[in-house]
Amino acid sequence: MNDAPAPAPKREKRSIAEIRDSKRTGEKMVYMSVPDYTSAKWAEMAGVDVAVVGDSLAMIAHGHTNTIPATMDMMVMHAQAIRRGAPNTFVLGCMPYQSYHTVDRALTNATRFMQDALTDAVKPQGGRSQAHILKALVDAGIPTASHIGLTPHTIANFGGFKIQGKTADAAFKILQDALAIEDAGCFMLEFEAVPARIATLISQQLTIPTIGIGAGVGTDGQILLCHDLLGVFTDFKPKFTKRYAKLTEVAVAGIREYVREVKEGAFPDDDHSYSVKDEEYEKFAAMVEKRRQI
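^ thats the sequence. predicted structure below, dont judge the formating
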């Protein structure tokens, strides 16, 4: 009996126009950050709208304590695998630390995502301070989004992973960042770690859709990390992550059983071994014995 889930019907990749229109239609867009080929396949089979190549893979796939060590080479390699795993899913490449601090560098690295990894769009981080970078990418014909609120690339300035926009003045700065992103021509923006009511009210001021991670239900869509929501990454659990599965527990239990069976000589059994005809085995055994006697 085959317990594998049936493949989802082939669907058309979501377009920039559909993502933009979600603001008007009210369709909640589902984004998921995936680090590799297998998780990208899961995303496509499950019907995720946008597979995100997040630089969080520096943590979940490479064991770093934050996203700063992610490089363009690392991101492009993972993005290529994700595109192969999800050929019919919109793929958004997150530009890593210091890959977009000048217009020329941003254009070069965004082009690598689009040409070498075949992503459908790119996402730097920042609002007003990065508006000229965002506009340059858009003007060059590169579909571009951005990320505000808690921006991991400037985590040192925040003193750690802390909620943003908790005061009226701080929230107004996030609104100004959001409007700058919209004015630059971006097709979408992401809020991270912003109080739900603040993110909702800012979203209502915009004509482009918003997605949230730790920003409440009032955004136009949601994003979580695949390895967080499935319980694969267990070093820590952000408040905003809901565990929909506990795959690490299942995996460790399975590996423990494998270790036990190997130690006891129970694996591999005949069902998991290849056979040979008796006459061929006897012929070979005779050849071995003859060689020993020489």
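The two ends are 51 Å apart (CA to CA).
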